[in-house]
Design goal:
heterotrimer; A mainly alpha (315); B alpha/beta (400); C alpha+beta (361); A: 315 residues; mainly alpha; two-stranded antiparallel ribbon; 13 helices; 1% strand; B: 400 residues; alpha/beta; D-Maltodextrin-Binding Protein, domain 2; 2 domains; twelve-stranded mixed beta sheet; 14 strands; AAA+_ATPase (chain C); transport (chain C); ATP hydrolysis activity (chain C); transmembrane transporter activity (chain C)
Chain lengths: 315, 400, 361
Amino acid sequence: MTSKAPEADTSTPPTHPARDRVAAPSITLARRASTYLSRHARLRLAVLLSAPLLWLGLVYVAALAALLITALWTVDSFTGQISQTWTLDNIVAVVTGSLYQTVTLRTVGVAILVTIVDIVIALPIAFFMAKVASPRLQRILVIAVLMPLWASYLVKAYAWRSVLSQDGLWDFVVAPFGIESPGYGLPATVITLSYLWLPYVILPIYAGLERVPDSLLEASSDLGARTWRTLGLVVLPMLWPAIIAGSIFSFSLSLGDYITVNIVGGTNQLLGNLVYTNVGAANNLPLAASIALIPIVIMFVYLAAVRRTGALNNL
Amino acid sequence: MNLNYSSRRMTAGSARRSAALAAVAVASIAVLTACGTTSGSAGPTTAADEVGAGEGQVSILAWPGYVEDGSNDPTVDWVTAFEEDTGCEVTSKTYGTSDEAFSLMKTGEYDVIAASGDASLRLVAAGDVAPVNTDLIPNYDGIYDFLKMQSWNSVDGKSYGIPHGYGANLLMYNTDVVSPAPTSWDVVFDKSSPYAGKITAYDSPIYIADAAVYLMTHQPELGIENPYALDETQLAAAVDLLKGQRANVGEYWSDYLKEIQAFETGDSVVGTTWQVIQNSVTTGNTAVVLPDEGATGWSDTWMIGSEAKNPNCAYEWLNYIASPEANAQATEYFGEAPSNEAACEFRTEGSCEAFNAGDEEFASKLWYWSTPIEKCLDGRTDVTCTDYSQWTAAWSEIKG
Amino acid sequence: MIDHTSRPVAIELSALTKRFGDMAAVDGVDLQIAEGEFFSMLGPSGSGKTTVLRLIAGFEQPTSGTVSLFGRDVTTVAPFDRDVNTVFQDYALFPHMSVLDNVAYGLRVRGMSRITRHARAREALDRVRLADFADRKPTQLSGGQRQRVALARATVVEPKALLLDEPLGALDLKLREQLQVELKELQRSLGITFIFVTHDQEEALTLSDRIAVFNNGRIEQLGTPAELYERPVSPFVASFVGTSNIFDDAVSLALLGRRGTHSLRPERIGLTVGDTADGITAPGTIAEVIYLGTNTRILVDLDAGQRITVLAPYGRERFSDHDRGARVTASWRDADVISLQSPTTPPTAPSEKTPIEMRSR
């Protein structure tokens, strides 16, 4: 990775004396710096990455630290002022309180269900897009998958509220086949969240499938594997990182959601609602911060578990 | 109520909701970056003696729909007239929840705030608002007496603001389904309510007061005198009642559009409501009633910041917005009863009746939102009452 | 060399046609390939040879016509039910499996137990001298090693015929020559039909019992390597297989004294300074002299108006760069002139291409 700055060469006579020689670039300070950098790959990398890393460090690490620190403070409940006395009360309350345990379990359950539903729906759709559809249809489908993202989150959640309501679209279309509308509640929350996050799951899986060469599918078939064996032995293992990437989206987004459950969740509340209540209604930032740590811890555990499977190695 | 009115309400309502979303964004940033400000400065406890020359501008913090200068709807404008009369240029900011208002007021950037009862006392206690000398506000005379010097707008005999509009948290029911017509909150609190699964309730800790109002009649042995002054035993009784109710509740509402829709589709058939919501339900099969037990309600108050930079223009605004014309416009646009007796002359035909404006008997049955504090609002000194943070914890507990 | 006429037919294509939209990639191909034959399909890219291979493997469905394998019509049979296996151009090794699991894959999907299939796979890896690499991932292998894994994977399931789609195309020259020998040996020891797709005429000539030269979705000529080289039937074959000087009607009349299209191999032309030569002679001027090591390529502009290529073996007449512009006489025997069918389609390969150029693709 080293390159030398061109040096003036006076030893050989010019071959075309009639023409002026192209002058060597003059050695400016900038040129020296870039020469130096081109010889020192690590330094170059450091200079390149320092700005984004600084930004990441500020936004993520500092924010997380602020969250943790806030969780260790208390608030004067009447005047709403935070008093910076260090205490573990909030965290202890969150860890031991049966309310928080119940809501955490409910939230994780919803997030897992949403993730499973999304993956099960996304796999065939992504497979059709990547491996079956013509290039033209493929473009149309990608746009179709992206299209819901152009609409507001609230509009989509309210649309589901109306679909699932009494005498809603569900009662009109699905109920005649014997499946009653689940009404408002956790099933409705799972349905709506699955719909909301589906594009985030389809797209990485689609991209992952695009990276699986057709020749691998042909090779598998050529070696005697029927379609389902090929999917199980070749496609799925190669897609694993993409599925994990998609699941990180749907899982983490579901963990943090509080609006959908508010709109279609009936009387249920999730962790996000507790955070919202404590920030919004109770003005109790420290307790809200403590609750907000729960999904963060869960995500860390999830990522660590995923890492153990080795799925992140190929990301 | 005409259609035009309800569509205007929709506009204000969605603005309120997006403001709430913005508030969440702001709040989450606050969570991430807050390093806890502990200003805690006690503001002036004395009111102004005179209104001097205007400073040329005034900044106002208010619910959406309270300060309209025609930019949302050209036909809705009562700010321009004020600016022309007084030379005070108005800048306004809207908020989505009382708690957002509370934290915004702490910045000291606002001269005037329109606060509901669940924020006003906190603002006083935090020293963010100053007493108001009502003698300097000629239009104060026109305000209904039953709204003056109440627990949510005065402390120790000192007025902290001018009443604006008020309304009740009524009982709404679907006339096709709920029969006979209810006269009691029984239909929502009785565990064996025939409407189980289709009951709705307001999603806020302050709803505990609704349960307390019910208990005042049905369990007098608890000795509840004021639904915002509950000791621990009384709170526990209210929580028990609400936990039992939860099994029958289809969904809670805090976004009023959600309740309109739920009643229109029939997903909810009975529950607590605001008059404006019933006005907005288009299916025509709902009715509201003020149950025999009474109800909770709200009465908003115009207050002046303790660090107001433009106190003279602030007084000018308080006087202007209490005038019959402006009071009529603002309260009609928002959908509540006006505070000025003469305002009804300036409102749309029948709109005052729709909100029971000036009906003293109606008003006397209402327990206006107040912030529950440790020092019992009913004057008891032998016990400490449960405060709003305990109510919040209890509300989370109730929802489970 | 195997006599294809005396053996049972392994693969039979009848009137095979494959259209992609308006374009006929394969246009009415009839072909019989014998058991045990090393058969090459040679042609430029886009000539349809790979599509024919994919039709045989079952990856494509023909628009019309039939494919028979060992007497059975398999036109509509899925790839996994055909007794042939494929070695892909990009090898198509499964990146998430070890080399051993790759080789054992075909046995695994046939339901063979783990122990047996691993033992078989190890034997197959042994045959291609990769036993030590069994636990590696394909990405940790060189191109030639991957190629051999692909071979082992395709042969471990004991197919009746092996289809190879430009298997050496991505390798460098030295490795390619080495693997050509190994392929030939493998085919001989397995005794099964190999169908080999390539655009490299030298590779085809080296390995094959028979070659089908493809052009525009059709077989232009079918024959043994010697037949193709010595008796090309068309200007396309003459110039695609080896190098040829093609004389069109007018040039033929001027140089040979007869009409028609003719081809003349560059190594069959002698070059002398001055005008003393036997046989047919044509005077001209040297335009370029290219030193190639074993021989020298000389481009001569004939006075008759044609530029011809002459290959002069090392040591006879020495020409060098300084001879550019020198007057020479080209001479050849009339027996070396091959009469071609008039070109129906213009040759897609330029006639001045040398074997060196073709190999370095």
